[in-house]
Amino acid sequence: MKHITNLYENINDTARNNSDCPHVVLPEEIFFTISIAGVLENLIVLLAVIKNKTLQAPMYFFICSLAISDMLGSLYKILENILIMLRNMGYLKPRGSFETTADDIIDSLFILSLLGSIFSLSVIAADRYITIFHALQYHSIVTARRAAAVLAVVWTCCTCSGITMVIFSHSIPTVITFTSLFPLMLVFILCLYVHMFLLARAHARKISTLSRANMRGAITLTILLGVFIFCWAPFVLHILLMTFCPNNPYCACYMSLFQVNGMLIMCNAVIDPFIYAFRSPELREAFKKMIFCSRYP
């Protein structure tokens, strides 16, 4: 985020005086390459679902929502690099009105990526819960129309929240709200997992008869959630430390890894499509058909 980057640069000199940790700098080419790969991979996921009628089901709609979130995160970095390049070439006036507006739009994409990922994972968790414990009623509960309505509400809320957070990005309540969504999502999904575990113990025989596809979907969600936490948690922690202890030498030492934490976010968008392909035979088959230009049924 440009707002976060600027704030980080302003406080970094003071903090570095109190810390012996060197500032880690990664080549912009690494970010750009990873971002391009993230956009292309998630675009393939979207095209596979759109072109394959057998994948046009609520579960894959939710996966597409997560793929869009990942793609926005990668697109954010691509646009930021292009903006920096144009400014360095003299085509943009530094801190001019156009650059400020463009920064706000790009930052909105970044926040939208995080919020979209959080809510998409939460919706996928709820979908897996219904699939496992209400299997017989699943198709009447989770219809394509209801899934589309849920996603419309989710992305409307994410868009409005993203714009609001960019406008008030320098406010501490905004930072607290932004970072609190991360643990709230974890608590929600953890509650679903605990409930599923308790029900599984109470109905062990019934659970054992569930289809492997349903349990496979729950495991896939667990992997996606683990990767999401691993990639995003360091950056969320960075924001908290930068806001509440910017001059502390220990905080400054962690904040020297700012670009490394940013690269982890970009990696999340690259890893997720591989998880889809590895865990879903249907998506894997769809990817093969797209790569080898086979006809869809």
From TrEMBL:
It is a multi-pass membrane protein. It comes from the Eukaryota. Belongs to the G-protein coupled receptor 1 family. Pfam families: 7tm_1 (PF00001). One of its GO terms (molecular function) is corticotropin receptor activity. One of its GO terms (cellular component) is plasma membrane. This is Adrenocorticotropic hormone receptor. The chain crosses the membrane at residues 30-50, 57-79, 105-126, 147-168, 180-200, 221-244, 256-278. Homodimer. Interacts with corticotropin (ACTH). Interacts with MRAP; this interaction targets MC2R to the plasma membrane. Interacts with MRAP2; competing with MRAP for binding to MC2R and impairing the binding of corticotropin (ACTH). It is found in: Cell membrane. The keyword Ribosomal protein does not apply. The lineage of its organism: Eukaryota, Metazoa, Chordata, Craniata, Vertebrata. Keywords: Cell membrane, Disulfide bond, G-protein coupled receptor, Glycoprotein, Lipoprotein, Membrane, Palmitate, Receptor, Transducer, Transmembrane, Transmembrane helix, Ubl conjugation. It comes from Pipistrellus kuhlii. Hormone receptor primarily expressed in adrenal cortex that plays a key role in regulating adrenocortical function. Upon corticotropin (ACTH) binding, facilitates the release of adrenal glucocorticoids, including cortisol and corticosterone. In addition, MC2R is required for fetal and neonatal adrenal gland development. Mechanistically, activates adenylate cyclase (cAMP), the MAPK cascade as well as the cAMP-dependent protein kinase A pathway leading to steroidogenic factor 1/NR5A1-mediated transcriptional activation. Residues 41-276 form the G-protein coupled receptors family 1 profile domain.
